[in-house]
Amino acid sequence: MYTGSSGQHADLALVNGRPAISFYQTGNLMYKRASDFWGDFWFDAPTAITSGGQYASLAVVNGNPAISYYQSGDLKYVRSSDSNGVFWAAAIPLDTNGVVGSYTSLAIVNGAPAVSYYDYSNSALKCISRH
After folding, report:
1. Which partner from 30, 70, 93, 101 sits 20 to 30 angstroms from 119, CA to CA?
2. pLDDT higher for 2 or 109?
3. Is residue 78 packed enough to be buried (19+ CB in 10 Å), middle (13-18) or exposed (0-12)?
4. Quick check: 35 and 43 in contact, CB under 8 A?
5. pTM above 0.90?
6. What is the pLDDT of residues 11-55, one digit of tens each?
7. Looking at the predicted structure, is the pLDDT value of residue 1 above 70?
């Protein structure tokens, strides 16, 4: 599908009935949803979510795709404003204290998004939840 530095820090989820991926490609956090139910075809170009986003984790939050990721030493979160991931809202910083946010994992816990991640500054595993 892609070559070079594409596909680093990839994550896969089922978004509105089709496979979708978030990944790092040549300095950008990208999102792409399959063109078919099985994920055999990926016709549309990927959507650039932000510059520099890495260690992405993709999940569906309240019906729309969302991504937690590391960017410039911070943990951030972004959610699409539609169920297919065509349009994306502005990113929200979740933790900016030190060098934090690598190796994120986004999940729904008790109906709310929760993110686990690594805090490099304190050599600690952390978790944050949005109620």
Report:
1. 30
2. 109
3. buried
4. yes
5. yes
6. 999 999 999 999 999 889 999 999 999 999 998 899 999 998 899
7. no
- From the candidate CATH numbers 2.115.10.20, 2.60.40.650, 1.10.10.60, 3.90.1710.10, the one assigned to the domain spanning 8-129: 2.115.10.20
- 3-state SS, one letter per residue, for the chain: CCCCCCCEEEEEEEECCEEEEEEEECCEEEEEECCCCCCCCCCCCCEEEEECCEEEEEEEECCEEEEEEEECCEEEEEEECCCCCCCECCCEEEECCCCEEEEEEEEEECCEEEEEEEECCCCEEEEEECC
Domain extent listing, the chain:
8-129
Give the confidence band of 6 by pLDDT, cuts at 50, 70, 90: low
What number is the average pLDDT over the span 68-89? 96
Tokens 């805090």, located at residue: 119
